[in-house]
Amino acid sequence: MNLFGGKTGIKRRPANVRVVSAPVVTKAPAPLPRNLVSSREQERHSTTARSSPSGRSRTATPNLEGNDRRLKPPNKRSATSRKTSPNIQAQPKFDEDDNSSSNDDDTASKRRRVEAIPGNVDLKRKLRSRRAFSTDEDRGKFAMIHAADTTAVPRKTSTISESATIDDITVKLRYPSASQRERYDLEFGKDRIDSVQEIIDIAKTVADFYLTDEQAKPFLEPNSGYIRQLEKARNNLANNKKRGEITPRPVLLNDFKAAVDQYNAALQKLRLDKVLEQNLDDKHHLPFNMVKLILNQVYERAVSPKVDLLRQYENGGDNVYGELLPKLVNQVLTETNLKSDQVFVDLGSGVGNVALQAALEFGCESWGCEMMENACTLADAQKREFSARCRLWGIATGKVHLEKGDFLENQRIHATMKRADVILVNNQAFTSQLNQALVNLFLDLKDGCKIISLKPFVPAYHVITDRNDNDPVNNLRVTKEGEYYSDSVSWTGERGIYFITEKDATRRHLARE
To answer: Gene3D superfamilies of this UniProt entry (predicted)?
Structure first.
């Protein structure tokens, strides 16, 4: 064989074989196919940096994966069939760091998170909510679900140690707006929000997004910054947790509460100086990591305590429940170039996750329609909490409309679809009859409207002919067949395919020519 794999015409001469040592050259891995590289590159740009294998963040980016209790795909990677029963992620453990292994925390505090801003930023998007930064209407007091009130079982005084009272384990956190503070409790236990970690995630997000580099220095200073003080107190609480104590010792609670008070005071001064709202006026794009944090807060408070209601479904019918997770929603809506002056519709919106994300992340008018009673109940709860959460953060969103009923019959949804720019339908478990009914419904869409689906509405290799000239599918054109990977849908951790289809009535006319 020669170097290029062909046979050589030179015969070997019989001779003694001399053995010599030579370095082993390993073969470089073959490059990935172009289409796979493209898909993975899109995935990389649509998500934020993940934490290191040790579980400690290597940057100032909050690690939200462990604190997200929304419906999650099963861990079993070998499953290939669609899972119809939602799986709930177990309550996360506290960080295992202690003061002696805090170098990674130092590294985290030194650097501000840098998230790539899309090249097509919507400059028309206005992020600041004027109402959120004013106290004229209600002095910043409004209905919301505090983290301290989210336990599945009401907290009893008997769960608190003799040396600690309810006041001892309660801490109040200030947000960037002029709104009320949120109450957290610092008890450990199942079915509780990880209050300590969420507080640190919020503080990091505020420093990264609402402040300039100079303004953020007191928050991110690696030895004595406000976030570093929170991390040190967190590490001491984690050691207390490892010793098996349900309620932290008062001295440790006081350390964390003191760190929160310092953070609150610094943030309040910036707010009174109008620094936060002025900085927000200069921005037009929310980082995806912040979007995930806010959506997770809403879900954990409004849905997670009652998530068992979603287990009631009709197996094999059109009402099997499953959720698209924020990562995939971000990916597909970004690819449709959704803008704040456009209209989005989610057909079969479940508890409203996608409709809320579209309104928050893209600022668009957002509609959803769902017919399952329990899902509608939770969707209404999410919408209320979503409004409260966005006010806490000072963020203006697109208007959200959630309709109850059959999207094939709901007249308000039909009227909205006629002016919609993007429509999403999770038709993974829909019957062929329902998919065909949707194709008929799409006849009334305006040209250029984009339809996102998990199953195609246009059959593969479909060709317009004289025989099928009147088929409604001839008005649709598939513009993309993309791939999604783990953490994209609630029913599986396997890869899958999605489709973006565009209403294009000219396609049929061109085929006739």
So the answer is: 1.10.260.170, Vaccinia Virus protein VP39
Domain assignments of the chain as residue spans, ordered by start: 91-281, 288-512
Question: Is 407 marked as a binding-site residue?
Answer: yes
Asked if residue 94 belongs to a known ligand binding site, the reply is no
Check the annotation: does 324 bind a ligand. Answer: yes
Residues 182-231: tens digit of each pLDDT:
999 987 665 679 999 999 999 999 999 999 999 999 999 999 999 999 99
244 is in an annotated binding site: no
346 is in an annotated binding site: yes
- For 103-113, the pLDDT digits (tens) are 444 444 445 65
352 is in an annotated binding site: yes
Q: Is residue 403 within 8 Å of residue 347, measured between CB atoms?
A: no
Q: How far apart are CA 350 and CA 368, in angstroms?
A: 8
**Bridging pattern class, strands 71-72 and 87-88:** antiparallel
Q: Is position 347 annotated in a ligand binding site?
A: yes
Say if residue 484 carries a ligand binding annotation: no
Question: Binding residue per annotation — 350?
Answer: yes
- When the candidates are 3.40.50.1110, 3.40.30.10, 3.30.9.30, 3.40.50.150, the CATH number that belongs to 288-512 is 3.40.50.150
CB 153 within 8 A of CB 305: no
